[in-house]
Fold this sequence. Notes:
Blueprint: E1 4-7, E2 10-13, E3 18-24, E4 33-39, E5 46-52, E6 58-60, E7 68-73, E8 78-83, E9 92-99, E10 116-117, E11 121-126
Parallel strand pairs: 2-11
Antiparallel strand pairs: 1-3, 3-8, 4-5, 4-9, 5-6, 7-8, 9-10, 9-11
Amino acid sequence: QVQLVESGGGSVQAGGSLRLSCAASRSIGSSSCMGWFRQAPGKEREGVAAVKSGTGTTSYADSVKGRFTISQDNAKNMVYLQMNSLIPEDTAIYSCAVDLIRIGPCQLANEYTYDYWGQGTQVTVSS
């Protein structure tokens, strides 16, 4: 089992930046993926970004590519999401999750491959 706790959400104006943090209760293996997902009211959950623990290889949704950056600090059991050039469409609850054993690159299309989830943190972007 692994517990995940997100922090760093808040309210910003369009064009602003936020950095989200996710703290894991223990280290995870090199085959694991840490991912960020978001869900806006009335919409399905969307995979945003993910990073492979062992290699640092990253994956991004097209909607955030070039604006968001995922990073990890494995020594601290932490993963981060740097969000720049925020737009109102980024408004959502953001959750981190771990896919404990993933052969090959991380994926964002199927949230059910992720085994553990944090409680989520609200991000609101105003125009």
